[in-house]
Specification:
Length: about 600
Amino acid sequence: MSKVISDKLPTAEDIKQTNQIIQYLKSQPGIYPTEQEELQRKNALSALHTIIEQWLSHEQLSSSSTNNTPTTIIPIPFRIETFGSYALNVYHSSSDIDALLLVPHFIKKQSFFNGLYRMLQLDANVTELISVSDAFVPVLKFHLLNIPIDLLFCSLPFDQVSEKFDVMEDSILFSLDSESQRAINGPRVAHQMMRLVPHFDHFKTTLQCVKLIARRRGFYGSVMGYLGGVSLAVLVGMVCQCYPNALPNVLLHRFFKMYASWNWGYKAPIAMTSSLNSSSSTADAAAIHNPNLFGFSVWNPQFNFRDRSVLMPILTPAYPPTNCTFNMTRTTFDVIKMELARGETVSLAALFGKQPWDSLFEESDFFVRYSNYLEIEVSADNETDHRIWSAFFESRFRFLILKLEQASPSLIMHPFPEEFKVPDYDHYDGIRKHTTLYYIGLNYIRQHRRSLGGSSSSYHSHNNSISSGGSGGFEVDLTVQAQEFEEQISEWVGRLETMHRPIIRPIKRVDIPEFVYPSSKRDLLLNEKKKLKKRKSAGSEELSFMSDDVSDERPMKKVRNNTNQITRDKYQYTNIPASNNHRFNNNFPQ
């Protein structure tokens, strides 16, 4: 357990503010699923249970016919364990159900991804079925009765799965392969979380708040390098341990205060328990001297040097402890820190009644914060292939960020974790196809250097030139990185001819499509930002977490008619042709 910082009891004001927060959550669609939505999820799990029974019976028949044995069918005991937000009861009405199928040892992974996959294909109630058998944690993704489900697989070393089987029993881990170990870790984490947090209702409400804030502020989603559901649950759980009697209003502020000032790095991981929390003291003692003794991938930077490079280590509370922020990059880490700082200030003001709690949940100004964006187009000729292709792209998205980080030390990037499906048809080339768009905001650290006689000063980093002062400019070329990523992702062995090569293009703020961010909404927010900037320049002490770069909507001068070079004041943004189709040859949009 984490050390208790304060066990102070709540005040009447805390109770009042917490009720205000709960009422706000209730007013937001989807936060508290209706009875009908809960029933739909139960029906979906019941239907899944029936499908799996049919599949296992079919497996028995196939095995009997192959071995020429009697065809007496005895039901094969199995279990479906839910985990994640559904098990913790903090799921959104649009959230998927994370589930793990536990079966006896003679049911193999190959049968799961072939036989059960075919059975799901034939069911009229199943849609959007995807098999991801080569993932770090293999999974079947599908919608059943319109409920999204992620189904994992674990073959236990037993002849049957007893109802008394406890997933928290550590000894079972030593008989599982690495994929099954990772799969069963999901339910183990959920069970351990419920055991460790005091006042589960307080934890649940606080976690619902933090997840909603993370979604609206654009730092939710582990696949895209941000914080996922497990990470946020551990972060909130540790705060609840440190303040066991606090109500959600205090827990929310402590959440942002604690992590905004946390000394992030491998020496200070977030952990709700000790680094080795097996129930077996023998296993603990052995693993201290050799963390990988039992074949587990255990967080231990003393032995695993790769763990030392983790920017924001957050460890799962169940044995074996693993880091759940492995997709995070320097770019997404910086965005998260910025949002934690913003949350600390806003929650403090709300705690003291200086502003309403609603302000903590305000949407991000991402689509007006920057003047320049990268737009990534991922498309395919049919819906099924597009779903597979975009899922693969998202799993590799962090590699694009890593490449772009190498372009210039003064380039600031902000990936947006939400995808946007183009309605009806691809409006860029007129060819009807299924398309999803992703966005990365771009900004630049402006170099301010003193120089004698007003002469310009500059320095060079690799092939990128950054200069300031005098007639100097700012130039950054992202073409090489974009090309390399496009080529690497296009070489995926599972890619079909119907899956088009991704397109990475630079666009201006004003060219963001209406279905992504309406221009009326953009103009309204820009006007608010400009008014706020005037108040600040007049001596107002009002706090703002929006970018001060609000003058970027001024008309930009086109430097050349046949290039993408645009000049704004003394700063230039340059892109050269990225590939043979000359996507980057068009004039940079104004």
